[in-house]
Amino acid sequence: MILPPHLTVRGGHLRIGEHDTVELAERFGTPLYVTDEMRIRKNFKRLSGALNDYYPDIRVLYAAKANGNLAILRVLASMGAGADVFSAGEVTLALAAGMRPESLLFNGSSKSPSDLALAVEKGVRVSVDSLDELRQLDRAAGAVGKTVDIAFRVNPEITVPTHPKIATGLATSKFGIPAGDILDAYHQALAAEHINPAGIHCHIGSQILDVEPFAREVDVLIDLTGDLIDIGVDLAFIDIGGGLGIPYRRETDFAPTPEEYAGAVMPVFLNGIRELGIAPELWVEPGRWLVADSTILLTRVNSVKAAHKTFANVDAGFNLLIRPAMYDSYHEVFAANKMDACLEREYSIAGPICETGDILAEDRLLPDLAAGDIIAVLDAGAYGFAMSSQYNSRPRCAEVILSGENAGLMRRAETIDDLTAPMEIPPWQA
Ligand SMILES: *Cc1c(COP(=O)(O)O)cnc(C)c1O
Questions:
Q1: Is the distance from CB of 15 to CB of 22 less than 8 angstroms?
Q2: Which pTM was predicted?
Q3: What's the 65 CA to ligand 1 centre distance in angstroms?
């Protein structure tokens, strides 16, 4: 059993930070997301420190979509992070968390007129994903007499070894402007009255466990930056996106450390800017790496069934953690109240959703399980609660955040009333 340092075992119980997970489950109920704030702080320091060791002008934009809870955003804001935001909601939450507008980058391939107007109004930089969007943004800025700083999102046409649903830099991806069309895009940005082409942006995908594609990506960006200098674009920042993966299978996954990541990308970046004679800020947009391992999902066994397989039927399913169903993802699971017990048999941990695919973990060797036991699902902090739903009319669960000996809600559990509140009876049914 390999546990990350903020997870420990005492008296047969799994602990997170200074807290007994079985007590947390009793106190707050299950299912329950539990986040250790200290772990996020450590992760942030380590990743930004690894990059800062090479270059002072690093800006870390946390990818808010990984976990958008305000308390998480506040922790990262207090560390000096900005945010990579994808929606009006994420812009609003990041600002509410205390992040400054100029430390946000509004991303996405399909922004609405109101998204663009919000960016202009708040002074948030925009990663522009098409020439159509450029024209719309120029008009929106012109309408209120402002100028907007933009980057174009480049599609570097790089293949990366990850799940195809989260590879974003493939030639066929919906994201970005093909590298071959980028110069024309910057020409148009230079000509636009209310646009300042301040940066260049790229993001090649998520859960990438090899640093080499990141180095290739930076190489592409440096080449393009050189071409841009020739046409008179003076870049203030180069944004290399996020995507650094984590070892979900601690026993067998090889995952690069932040130091190895920095060791791969920074020399390419530093040599490149030295040759070009420029000193732009380097922006990075980690999501998963900062928050994934900070959080566990606690779920209680409702029943055990011996069939072709032995199922432990628990109270959390893909309504709360969709990654296994959506990406075939692996999450480590432990019997949180039987950490010292012998591993007896293989269980499939099955959720309460009316779908065959509602399996959180398949064929895992665990102690003998019984109704009432608590299962901890590890590394649930990124794309966990953030991707949850009310499918099967299940209210979403609570989220708890820990800081040292403090434990408190950062989101209360939804109730049945929360399900029905936005529903309307159409007048002809009344
Ligand atoms: C999702 C996303 C990220 C973060 O990806 P991680 O794999 O969580 O690090 C960064 N930038 C953009 C543009 C994204 O879409």
A1: no
A2: 0.96
A3: 8
